[in-house]
Amino acid sequence: MIERYSRQAMRELWSDQSRCESWLAVELAVCEALAARKKIPGEDMRAIREKAAFDLARIDEIERTVGHDVIAFVTSVAEKIGPAGRHVHHGLTSSDVVDTAQAWRTVKACDVLLETLDALIETLRAQGLAHRTTVMVGRTHGIHAEPYTLGLKFAGWYCEAKRNRERLVTAREEIRYGKISGAVGTYAHLGPEIEADVLERLGLLVEPVATQVIPRDRHAMLFSVLGVLASSLDRIATEIRHLQRSDVREVEEPFREGQKGSSAMPHKRNPIKCENVSGLARLVRAYVQAALEDVALWHERDISHSSVERVILPDATSLCDFMMHRMTRILADLHVYPERMKQNMQITRGLIFSQKVLLTLIEAGLSRDAAYDIVQRNAMETWAGPGQFRDVLEKDPAVRGVLDEAALDACFDAEGLLKNIHVIFDRVFGES
User: Fold this and answer.
1) What are phi and psi of 139, to 5 degrees?
2) Nearest 5°: CA angle at 35, between 33 and 41?
3) What does the angle CA 116 – CA 117 – CA 121 come to, to the nearest 5 degrees?
4) Is residue 262 among the annotated active site residues?
5) What burial letters (b/e) apply to 255-267, b meaning 16+ CB within 10 Å?
6) Residues in Cβ contact with 373 at an 8 Å cutoff, skipping those fewer than 6 apart
7) Average pLDDT over residues 137-157
8) Are 176 and 107 in contact (CB under 8 A)?
9) What is the residue-averaged pLDDT of the chain?
C-alpha cells in the first residue's frame, strides 16, 4: 500500500497537471502579494481568486502557435479570468514561475523519497538485528577471508542508508530556493518585498543572487545525492547477486509462486530484481553528469538546461523511489540459508583461520617473518592438497614445537573471532 501510494504520488507530482498547478500557485501568490500592496484592485483580485484556472488542451493548442509553454499557460489562465487576467504574470519572466514552481515540486519529491527511504532503513535495521549471529564467511577480493555475520552486512547498509538520508535532507534544503526577481534578477519591475512575500507563501527561501534562473549548482547537488543513493542500492543488489550464485547460494532474492526464471531452463531462479536495481542505478548516475553539465550556462541564462531537467528530474526521483521500494521488498523477504553458509565456510578447509594461527605463533615467541613463512607454507600445501589446514599444521614440527593441541584448536574458533561484534551492533543499533 505504501509503495503504491508513493509511486502514484511521484507520478502525479511530475504530471502536466501538477506542473501547471504549481505554475498557477506561483502566479496567484504574486497577485496576492501585489493586491496586499494595493497594486491590484480588490474587485480584480476577487475575480482572479474565483476564476483562475487553466485548460491543458487549450494550453497545447496555444503553444502550437506561439511555441512557448509559459505564454500558452498565461494566455489560458487569462482567458478563464477575463479582463482582470491582465494582472497575471505582471512584471515576471518565465523562469520566475518555472524555477520557483520546480523548486516547490522538487521539495515535495524529496519528501516522498525520504518517506520511502525511511521504510528501507527500518527494514535494514530489522534484518540486521535478526541476523546479527548468522555466521558466514567474509570475503575480500571475492576470496574467503575470515568469519563474518550476515547481520554485519545489514548493519553496514543501514549506516549507509542513514547517511544517504542526511544527504537527502541537506539536498532538500539546498534546492528549496525560488526567485521572483525578473529577467536578469535585478528586481527591475517587482521589488524584493514581493519576492519575499511570494516565497514565504510557498514555503521557499529567497535565492540570494539569481540571474534569470536559480543557479544550477543547487540542482547538481541534489542529483549528486541521488547518484550516491542509487549507488548504495546498487551495492546491496550486487552483494545479493553474488551471494545468490549457484556455487554460493547463501541468500536469494524472493521468488514468488508461479514465477518463471527462464524461457529455456525451467530450473532457473535468477536475481532479476537485483539486476534491475543495478541497471537503473547506472541510469541515475548518468543523470548526475547531465546535471553537472547544466551548471555552466551562458551569461545570465540560456535554455540548454531546461530540456535536460524535463527528463532527468522526474526520471531520477521516480527511479530512486522505485529502486528503494524494490530493494525494501527484496530485503524484507530475503531467503537466507544458514546451513549453506556453514558448508561454504568449510570449503577452504580451515584457511580462514590463518591470521589467528599467525598471531598465536607470534605470541608464542616467533618473529613475525618466521611465523608468516610457516603459516603461508602450510596454507599453500592446504590449497594444493585435500587435507584440512589444521591437520597440515599439526604435522609441521615448526608449529608443534611452540603450540600444543589445545592452543592449535583455539585458533579454529569462529565465535572467538566474532567476540567483539556486539560493540558494532551497540554502536549502530543501540542494543546488543
Assistant:
1) -130, 135
2) 165
3) 125
4) yes
5) beeeeeeeeeeee
6) none
7) 97
8) yes
9) 96
Among residues 141, 263, 299, 432, the one annotated as catalytic is 141
CB 287 within 8 A of CB 277: no
Radius of gyration of the chain (CA): 31
Q: How confident is the model at residue 5 (pLDDT cuts 50, 70, 90)?
A: low
Give the CA count within 13 Å in the CB-facing half-sphere of 341.
Answer: 22
| pLDDT tens digit sequence for 288-343 | 999 999 999 999 999 999 999 999 999 999 999 999 999 999 999 999 999 999 99
Closest among 12, 2, 230, 224 to 116, alpha carbons compared: 2
Length of the chain: 432
Is residue 141 annotated as part of the catalytic site, yes or no?
A: yes
Bridge partners, residue 135, by sequence: 149
Which CATH number does the domain 1-90 belong to among 3.30.70.580, 1.10.275.10, 1.10.10.10, 2.60.40.1940? 1.10.275.10
Q: Does domain 91-255+263-342 have CATH number 1.20.200.10?
A: yes
- What are the cell numbers at 49? 481568486
Active-site residue identified among 15, 68, 189, 262: 262
Gap between the Cα atoms of 113 and 383, Å rounded: 49
In order of 32, 90, 152, the CA distances from 193 in angstroms are 13, 15, 54
Per residue in 38-81, pLDDT (tens digit) is: 999 999 999 999 999 999 999 999 999 999 999 999 999 999 99
